[in-house]
Amino acid sequence: MGHAILLGDSIFDNAAYVGAGDPDVVRQLQEQLPRGWQATLLAVDGSVIGNVSTQAGRLPADSSHLVLSVGGNDTLGHARLLEDPARSVAEALSMLARAGDDFEREYRLMLDDLLGRRLPTAVCAIYNPRFTEARMQMLAVTALCVFNDAIIRAASARGLPLIDLRLICTDDRDYANPIEPSARGGAKIAAAIKRVVTEHDFSRGRTEVFF
The domain that contains 59 carries what CATH number? Predict the structure, then answer.
């Protein structure tokens, strides 16, 4: 039987954001997995790419699958770019491109280190936030394309399955606040994880998108 490990940030470690008595992602995943399977949460709210290696250092000996959702907090660190002045569109795009290059470099190094554990691994794209202010929402969604493109390229180059959270959390009710999943969103995320770890053929080294 399998043992799915959740690594990353509050997309998985969302217990603090769901309603009182509502289940978090790992609990919902455990309920959806086949009998005999186990789900363990190693993701930590607030984590960035650089924290994943520490989380992976605590992997249980019987781990069978790794599922990673990280990068959202790293992009928040670049949020100032949305308001920084630029003399032209080209200059603004150059600023965003440099941030994307730095993100991709760090993400690829982290992912290669994680793959060194030689366990079937799936990664998640960063979902779009739910800001109430229309201009901020538009800018954030547009800028996230740069960072998600880096994640998609990294997954595709390594033949890893991708869970595209942008296509999963599509309703305001999927969010507990502008950047955290609610119990409803968590149930949808858990369902996608369950499909990946139980249905995807990791031996083929082929990228598939799950949503």
Answer: 3.40.50.1110
Residue span of the structural domain in which 117 resides = 3-210
Sheet holding 162-163, edge to edge: 38-41, 3-8, 65-69, 121-124, 162-163, 209-210
Beta-strand runs (E) in the chain: 3-8, 38-41, 65-69, 121-124, 162-163, 175-177, 180-181, 209-210
- The continuous run of DSSP H or E covering 69 comes out as strand 65-69
Residues 32-48, mean pLDDT to the nearest whole number: 97
pLDDT reading at 92 higher than 80? no
Tokens at 77, concatenated: 């660190």
What would the pLDDT profile of 159-169 be if each residue is shown by its tens digit?
999 999 999 99
Residues facing 4 on adjacent strands? 39, 65
pLDDT tens profile 169-188: 999 999 999 999 999 999 99
Q: Which residues contact 138 (CB under 8 A, 6 or more apart)?
A: none
